[in-house]
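User: Hey, my collaborator sent me this sequence without any context and asked if I could get a structure. I don't really work with proteins. Can you help?
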Amino acid sequence: MRFILPALLFSFLNARSFTGDYLYFINLTKVVDDKVSVKLKVPELKENEIEFCFPAMVPGTYKIYDFGRYISNLKAVGKNGAEIKITKTDINTYKFSPASMLSEITYDVDDTWDKQPGIDDKNIVFEPGGTNIESGKNFSINTHGFFGYFKGFTNKNFILEFEKPKGFYPSTGLSDIKINETKDLISVFDYHDLVDSPIMYSIPDTASIMVANTQVLVSCYSPEKKITALYIAKTLKQLLNAQRDYLGGDLPVNKYAFLFYFTNKATLSGAHGALEHSYSSFYVMPEMDSTYIQQQLRDVAAHEFFHIVTPLNIHAKEIGEFDFNNPQMSEHLWLYEGMTEYAAHHAQAKGGIIGVDELLNIMMEKYVNSITDFNDTMSFTWMSKHVLEDKINKQYNNVYEKGALIGFCLDVMLRDLSNGKYGTQNLMKDLSTKYGKNKSFNDADLFNDIEKFTYPEVGKFLRDHVSGTKPLPMKVIFEMIGIDFIKESVSYEFSFGSPDLDYNTETKRLKVTDTKGLDEFGKALGFKTGDELSKLNGKELKISTLKETINDYYKNLKENDLVTMEIYRPKGKGKYKIKTLKAKAIKVKVTEQNKISLKEELSEKQKQTLRAWVGL
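Assistant: No problem. I've predicted the 3D structure and written it out in structure-token form, which is a compact way to encode the shape of the chain:
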């Protein structure tokens, strides 16, 4: 709930009677050279020397970013004028002595979204995990980019006092917030919770919806006002209700925040996306007409929201006891990211938001990506454990491809083995009950625990195809739901010639951009790079009617029919020569790989497994 603190109470707070282990002060009204100043009122320390750290890495990013790079002008104030020696021991760490005489630490924070002089631009922070400082407009505060901690003292309270521009509101998944016209107080239990809690400051555009027992906040910053929080909330409501049902009717959190920043310019990283947190998710997405981004909003939000299951309630010790400056990776990215990605699409199919055909097409697209773009024989658990290594990090994105396929295979296999009564939804619930937010598992024990909840065949699958190097048994899995998986098929069909095409917005014509892939018919017609297509068999090739024209072409074409293609061939200096290309229609060899098709007849077992899998 948003409320205003009485002036008397703020006077009380300013007298510092409200104290904690860490007391931070941040002034968002004074931005100098795109930097914000931060002050830490240091708690009582008994040590002679102590290290003050900024994170090298935070959970969910899977890359060393060294957030200390963005800290400058760090100074220490001693009690009663005592001199404090500061030694910078590495890019993220400062050593103070005598620590017992420390009174205050001050420093400046630069944002990560803009190119900064003297900062390595080869290791750009992915924007949803970084920080944005736009004076008077927006402050996107991923807290690990603003606040440090004393080594060995991450389990202490953090109290943040923000001085803010008038009218600004702190959107966050945190609940312990006290809001005033010009100052806010935000409290968290420890550094892990702090890093897990991004805050977005701006003139508020928010909406709130209830999903089961959870209050969901949607906060939006759209500089050109093309997208609103209300639109996002309406777009996500059906999805969130489907996810609620998918998780059994209740959600494991009481409050959740979707924080959306839409940008009307290119990002420094060249990418868009989101970063998950236990009680919120932060998004950096392109600002465009809302109708074009609607399904993308659903897909990305569905994935991030499902992280309330993993790793919030199911995680290894490497995550539960995360070391921010010497991170150790868990073996089970297939669980944290892969299962989450699978559930994000599966829940939409079971909730009627997308069709079963679309779900199958998504799985097949992920399969093709996983075998063409990544090393399909690399052990997934080994990749996860070594993902911070430069040579292995390029395999990380396979968690959204093969990782999701692992979830698909597990789900179908479980439905088949249990006669439709048990799937990955049940498995995740059982694992959440066994572990939970405050109980981590040992990496080496997870497969055994899953096997105890399920079947020996499942344990064998995990050891062969997840920790092992065997490719996923896609043909066997598809067979369980009555679908033929064809690795390669050959047929003979009419074609359009197979040129690579683009659209010339100036001439409003399709343009041949490459002829390397021309088939026999295309070669017979004589396409050349640069040709612009005007008419096919006398019919204009307009974008508005292109689909109907092409469909009509294939429908009525017979072998040896004369095909004519009127084209505009460039002569140079913006001039064209109109030509008519001619060739007799022939069927060309078409080789297709990785096709699926529903069997004409399904066994009762296959029908049962298919119905259970998609909730029919």
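In plain terms: Residues 7-204 form a domain with the Immunoglobulin-like fold (CATH 2.60.40.3650). You can pass these tokens on to your collaborator as they are.
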